[in-house]
Each structure stands twice: as structure tokens, then as C-alpha cells.
Automatic annotation (TrEMBL):
Keywords: Disulfide bond, Glycosidase, Hydrolase, Signal. The lineage of its organism: Bacteria, Pseudomonadati, Bacteroidota, Chitinophagia, Chitinophagales. This is Peptide-N-glycosidase F like protein. GO terms for molecular function: hydrolase activity, acting on glycosyl bonds; oxidoreductase activity, acting on paired donors, with incorporation or reduction of molecular oxygen, reduced ascorbate as one donor, and incorporation of one atom of oxygen. Gene3D superfamilies: 2.60.120.230, Peptide-N-glycosidase F, N-terminal domain. It comes from Niabella soli DSM 19437. It comes from the Bacteria. SUPFAM superfamilies: PHM/PNGase F (SSF49742).
Amino acid sequence: MLKKILFMILLLQAFGANAQLNLDNNEVYKITYSSSFNGKTREHQNKTWVFAGATQTLITNEKDFTKKSPYPFEVSVADHKKNELELLAFLGAQNVISTTDTSLRNQQFEFSNETKTILGYTCKKAKAIVRSNTMELWYTDQLPVKGAPSALGQNLGLVLEMTRNGNSSITAEKIEKQKLQLPSFVKTPAHQTDLLSYRDAIWKSRFTTIPLFTHQVINFSDTTKSTGDIMRFASGTIVVKKIKMPVIDSGSSAFLDVTEQSNGDAYDRTGTVFLIPVDKKQSFLDGLKNGVNTLPIYTNGNGKKYQGVIATPDYNPLIELMRFFTPFGIKQFNQNAIKGKQWQEAAPYRQDITDFIPLLSNKEVYIGVFIGNYDKGGHKITANITVHHDGPAQLRPHIVPLFNTLNAMEMAGQEYATMFDTDKGITVQFTLANPLKNVHLRYVTTGHGGWGGGDEFVPRLNTILMDGKIVFSMIPWRQDCGTYRLYNPASGNFNNGLSSSDLSRSNWCPGTVTNPFLIELGDLAAGEHTLQVKIPQGKPEGTSFSSWNVSGVLLAD
């Protein structure tokens, strides 16, 4: 019997936080609030509802309380005797979590002698500063209950109006005395957790996370083998995974997240996350499996053969979702102590990939990651895609990959992108079966050649021509690399006080994402078109040479 009683106590502690709500079937005051901005009240708003009882106050809103809101949603209960909040989050029909928030005890107010009348009740004024916002609260003590439309001011009295920064207000428009019948969902057993975990669970429930890779090693080793659903190529410097993507609504936004740590390599390296198109006769996957020289060859008269870099009638190059650059030895070399510097533990990269939703939604896709390195420890990454619903995104349904000169199969013999040593540069001829409206070129470019005269450190003009007309001409250059010094524990220090990671570069920094340029092309007619990229690539010095990794995809309505 004693064991049974102890079990019931533990069960109530773990799953019964909302069982402490004592407002059900009791007489309460229901206060309905509406919001306004600069004195203007928006129509058809979801109004805040507060149910104030003798010792507790329930804070909710019309849609949540009537269960018209999608998951997740929350309700709060202020316990005026304990001076704390019980928070309830409904993540699903049978997935409810709760926690206790004691921040009510730390609220401080500045009181005023001003008064005003709201709904016939005399209200006093109190002011608080919350996260640099000035909050003015008007509360009355002419009713036998306490409460407020938010956590702030729960124990002042009954707050009938709250104004933030003088322009955004929430004001009581009706007070009713009634017997409260709690909806059944409020009584669903809840799992109690700490406040930080509670907030994290709510945050993560607001979007869909699609795992790609978890603590995946990308290194260089002759003994590298594919395992499970991870395919490894180019001596382990490329990992590829076939992923079944969910249906993604057209109003959604999608983001790609990558976290990188050194697993042994001390140097800054080129990285890319890519999608392998498989909609034509041949794909980059064929090159990974059968050898780089089985891919279509591009030549421009300089005597070299560049494998798999441009679109042909039977082949599409890699579609680059993200270009990133590893810092110098993050995590693995954090023992390189420098006074006054606290090294970061991992390099985070996050990029909006909403443009590519039409290629992802409800499809099986091949997604890969490349990090160029010759280290058997290499690098370790975790990557996922998050899908955020009900956003303002407007998708462009037509996506046409044109070129990608980043030699992801570098360690399997793919030629470096040195084709810009001739005036022809890279030239792509393509045919549109139908006209395209509102066309943009998504263009990613970075210059390489890591010595003093190499294009990594020399500004070079990038020029793009569409059907012979210049549509883009600028020098891509990053001068903010020193911002990321704390991500680069193994970066070399020079006699002049600079570090290698501080130096400005051709559109990249160690530890950053390279953002694409969106180049407006207008409307394109059906038929033949030619796109050309020209860069005055620097000349080799001995065994050192320059190259330019550029990728381009057409996006159109």
C-alpha cells in the first residue's frame, strides 16, 4: 500500500502539474482584452482571455481556449499565493508539458499617483522596464481578484490596460462574472520539465526538422568505406545520403543548418552542401560511382579538361545549397591558448534554401557534403534542414542548374576550376522549351590560390553576360574576416600582429558561409541562350595556381 501511495505521488509530480488548477466549476471574472497600435484596433483579432479567481488566474486567448489554434499553443496559470506561474504547452493531442516560472517574484515597478477610469473602475498606474521596453500598466483594486493579460503585473491588482513603448496596447473591453467550465484538453496529464527545456520544446515544435548527417566524419583515407545509408566517395571527402523529403507547403520557408568541428585537420577548407540532380540521362552520382572522367567534359581552349561542370542536354551539374569554409582547427586545436581569447567550440552555418523547395518537396533526393582535405582525421559535421510553415515565401517553381566549377571530386582527380585563364571563361549554352518569367541567376563565387599573389587574396572583377549582354559586374570581396578570429585557434599569427584568418579574401572567410548573389535577368524567351562568366584569373607562380569556384542556377516564376 505504501509503495502504491508513493507511486501516485510521483505520478502527480511528473504528469499532474495542471491538476493543481482549481478554477474548474468555480465563479471567476472573465476579462476580454483587445490589442491596438497607435490607437487603431485591428479587426478579427484573436482576443486575450483572462479568468481571474480568488487565488489563481488563467491567461489564454480565444482561439487557444476554444481549441481552434493549431499545435503548439500555451496557457498560463498565475498562483497568487505561491507568487509563481504554471506554464502549460500543448504540443499535440497527448503531448503536454508543463513547468514553473518564478520570475513573478523579481518584477519591479515604479508607481505613480496618476489614475484613470477603465470600464467604470478607477485604475492606478505602474511602470516597468522589460528588455529595454517601457511598460505602463493600469490596474484596479476595486475587484476582489488579481490578474493581467501577461505574466507582468499579476500581483498588482487586476490590470485592465498595458502599453508598451507608448504605442502598442492591450486593453480590457469587457468584464463578466461567470462560472468557469475548463475545456477537457486543459486537464490532459502533462509531463513536468525545467523552464529551459520547456521553452526549447515549444520552439522546436514550431517547425519540422529533417536530419541529414549527425557527427559525420569527412576525412581523407584510402580505407574509407560506405556504411549504412551513408555513401562515401573521393577517399572519404564526400558523403552522400538518399533522403525522403516530406511534403513542404508552398508558403513555407526552408533553412539548411551545418555545424562543423575539426577532427584533426588544422586548415581552412572549402566545403559545400549539394543536391545531385538525377532527372537526366547522366548525373554526378554516376561520376562518383564510376569515376570522374565518365562525366561530360568542358573545354575552353586552354588545353585542360573540366569534368562535370556545366549543363548539357543529358546532364545537370551539382546544385549548390550552401558554400561554407571551415575555420582553422576549431575544437581540435582549442588547446592553443592565447590570453584574452576564448575559442569557440564549433562553427555554425545557416542558410535560407527556400528557393529549392520545389526540388525537395515530397521527393527522394541525394544530398551530399564535401570538405576538401588530406587529413585522416578530417572534419566532423552535423547537418539538418528545418521547414518553417506559414511564412511569406513566394516560390519560383522553375529551377534550371547551369554550372558548378567547384571540384567536389578533387581527391578523386576532378580538375581545379582554372578555366578563367582565357577570355572565354566558362560558357554555357542551353535551350528553354518554354519561356520563363521573372528569371534570376543565383550565383555563388569564391576565389582561391593561397599565396600572396593568389586570387584568394587578390580582388578580381566577376563579369556575367547573358546572350552577349553584361548583367553582372562586380568584385566579390570580404573585409570582415577578423570578426571570426575566435573560430580559428590554429590560424597562423604574423609578426605584424595579424592572423591569417584576419586577412580579407575573395568572397569568403574561414568559418563563414558565402552568400549567393541574386542577379535579375528579366524574362527569357523559349529557345537557345548563352551565359558566360569571365574573371581575369591570376597567372601561376611555380607550382602555385589560382582558381575560381562558381556555381549558377536559374530561378524563375
